[in-house]
């Protein structure tokens, strides 16, 4: 539960949030909790899969891709970070490679691998990386 971390305020210099933001119930609350746990000059490294397709399509993905209740665009994540009080010091967005979907298929997870492959090809899946600090 990223929305309620059992940790003291300002206890970390760095927090890694790797491929998790789209799995929590309330992403803004999880980001607020991470910010609370960061020291004054602390940093968060965030990596999340984003989609370049229309918002209405991204909203429909939640009913198909149930383990991931949220499907962000890159701009969605940037706005969320800024609204919560992060300063984005570095940002990179690149198209996700097809290799990850193929590796899932090879591992024997055929149906989920096909879903992953379709997402990459049809929905504009990207890998977005952010280095953020507390805006003071």
Helix-strand blueprint:
Blueprint: E1 12-18, H1 27-37, E2 38-51, H2 55-64, H3 74-84, E3 86-95, H4 99-106, H5 110-122, E4 125-134
Parallel strand pairs: 1-2
Antiparallel strand pairs: 2-4, 3-4
Structural write-up:
- It is a single chain.
- The two termini are 26 Å apart.
- Helices cover 39% and strands 30% of the residues.
- It is α+β, with helices and mostly antiparallel strands and 136 residues long.
- Strand 1 (12-18), helix 1 and strand 2 (38-51) form a beta-alpha-beta unit.
- The mean pLDDT is 83.
- The chain contains five helices and four strands, in the order E-H-E-H-H-E-H-H-E.
- The longest helix is centred in the C-terminal third of the chain and has 13 residues, at 110-122.
Quick summary:
With 136 residues, this protein is of the alpha+beta class. The protein contains five helices and four strands. Helix 1 links the parallel strand 1 and strand 2.
Supply the helix-strand structural class: alpha+beta
List segments where confidence is low: pLDDT < 50 over at least 5 consecutive residues. none
Major sheet attributes: 4 strands, mixed
Q: Identify the strand order in the major beta sheet.
A: 1-2-4-3
Could you say what the CATH architecture is?
3-Layer(aba) Sandwich
Mean pLDDT: 83
CA-based shape: globular
Compute the number of helices: 5
The topology string of helices and strands comes to EHEHHEHHE
Cα gyration radius (Å): 16 Å
Q: Can you identify the CATH superfamily?
A: Vaccinia Virus protein VP39
Give the strand content. 25-35%
Task: Kindly state the number of beta strands.
Answer: 4
- Counted up, domains total 1
What CATH calls the topology is: Rossmann fold
Kindly report how far apart the N and C termini lie. 26 Å
Helix content: 25-40%
The CATH class: Alpha Beta
């Amino acid at each position: 539960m990223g929305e309620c971390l059992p940790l003291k305020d300002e206890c970390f210099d760095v927090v890694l949030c790797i491929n998790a933001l789209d799995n929590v119930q309330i992403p803004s609350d999880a980001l607020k909790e991470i910010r609370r746990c960061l020291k004054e000059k602390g940093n968060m490294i965030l990596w999340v899969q984003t989609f370049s397709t229309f918002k209405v399509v991204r909203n429909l993905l939640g009913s198909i891709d149930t383990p991931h209740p949220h499907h962000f665009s890159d701009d969605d994540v940037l706005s969320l970070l800024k609204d919560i009080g992060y300063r984005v010091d570095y940002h990179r967005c690149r198209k996700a490679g097809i290799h990850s979907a193929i590796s899932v298929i090879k591992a024997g997870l055929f149906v989920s691998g096909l879903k992953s492959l379709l997402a990459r090809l049809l929905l504009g899946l990207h890998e977005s990386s952010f280095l953020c600090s507390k805006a003071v």
